[in-house]
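U., I forgot to send this yesterday:
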Amino acid sequence: VNPLLVQPACTGADCDQTLAYRVLRISSNSPAVNAATGTYSSVLLDFEGQARAGTKDIGADEYSASGIALIGALGDENVGPDAVSYRYTYSIGGVLPVTLINFNTAYKDGKAQLSWQSLNEVGVKQYEVEWSNDGRSYKKIATVAANGSGSYSAEHSGLSTGRNFYRLRILDQDGKSAYSPVRMIVTGNNVEIHLYPNPATHFVMIDFGRSVAMPVDISIINAAGKMVQQQVRKVNGATKVNVGELPSGIYQLQIIQNGILLQSRSFTIVK
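Result:
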């Protein structure tokens, strides 16, 4: 069976000279898309750090129109004392003139709170927020016009009990579009967190507001998509996480329970 692999166009100067460019990825019409027979609930990311939601694809690669690879083959510029963070972007449907820095979700007062930040919004028309209760069929729930500020938000009040999937469709003035990574909120067993101080230097406090029934995994991901800290805790109220040994930069803190990503928050470390 032909897996219908493609070598998508990449974004950035000399990106076609990187090791990541040589990687073939599955296309939207590949027979591997949504073809896995098992659920594999503990498998949340593919080999490039992209979300694997709903029915998973066969193999190590999950089809993603967003084209933001957080993990991959490192080039010379990614190692050594002057290394730059690994980030490789590509587009199967065409290159969009925008870089999505982060896309966060939170559950508060019965609503999904979504926020995202972007750079280089040249020619971007709008962001369309899409929601799904199965990770396969998505419905547009909001349209946010691009205004050049780079910071946006939206909310959704029609959540289903259980898993709720969210993604952004980024549309430019020429009609080209691409998708963000998928984020998930689980209702019925929600963990609402507050993270402070932000920026942080030596530690961050995670305020859960209540006791969590089961232990949770607390993971910290750096800008290159690498997990730099992980611990399991049974929390009650607020808990302190030391980050004094981590260098300055932007990080993602993830709260995972039973293999399900409950919450994700961005924070900055400044030394």
